[in-house]
Amino acid sequence: MKLQSDFYLCADVVQVACDLLGKLLITKLNGIYTSGIITETEAYAGIADKASHAYGNRRTQRTLTLYKTGGVAYVYLCCGIHHLFNVVTNAENIPHAVLIRSVEPVDGIQKMQKRRNQAAVNQLTTGPGKLSQALGITTQLDGRSLLQNAVWVEDIGCAVEQDNIFSTKRIGVDYAGEDAKLPYRFYLKDSKFVSVY
DNA sequence: CGCAGGATGGGCT
DNA sequence: GCCCATCCTGCGG
What we know:
The protein is 16% helix and 28% strand. The protein is of the alpha+beta class.
């Protein structure tokens, strides 16, 4: 079942980050269908969060997507090379988002390995840059609705126990002062498909 | 093993 | 200029 807009309109971005664990992230691009179970996420809490691109209500060409109504993709370029995939949440003009950091490969593994230059399966999608490359996600998908058929998320009925979710501080945001310590990174304890333990 | 360095675009000072 | 929500390679021990 494809997640609908009420899922993304939730006012609690931390809740959405947890709820996305165990869901299936899917892309269908040029007829190529690939997917993976979400195993690791991070919440970015908008204008009050120093680690967020939208901190201080910053609006640039790049960040405009964050201000859209929840339920679209926010894809941006990191370090000039890596395309990082986020889910925009909450109401219009509240720039909250969840970064997908890792998935467990499910469908189209050979297609993903081709895109990733034949990376081993346990290295295929464990990291935000890696999973975007494997799933074919680029900034071309920035702003795309998650209710359409290019990139979307499905509930596949895989229940996640609360005590199977670990939280830590977010990766690579040490510049964000006190906000760097927030426990906004979530991952499945029993998954081998996580970027950093 | 671990770690330094390079690739390289957007956005801020 | 310089710093980044990264990843891969190659080097030394």
